[in-house]
Amino acid sequence: KNEVEQSPQNLTAQEGEFITINCSYSVGISALHWLQQHPGGGIVSLFMLSSGKKKHGRLIATINIQEKHSSLHITASHPRDSAVYICAVRLLGREKLTFGTGTRLTIIP
Amino acid sequence: DADVTQTPRNRITKTGKRIMLECSQTKGHDRMYWYRQDPGLGLRLIYYSFDVKDINKGEISDGYSVSRQAQAKFSLSLESAIPNQTALYFCATSDYRGRNEQYFGPGTRLTVT
Question: Does the structure show a pLDDT above 90 at A8?
Answer without folding.
Answer: yes
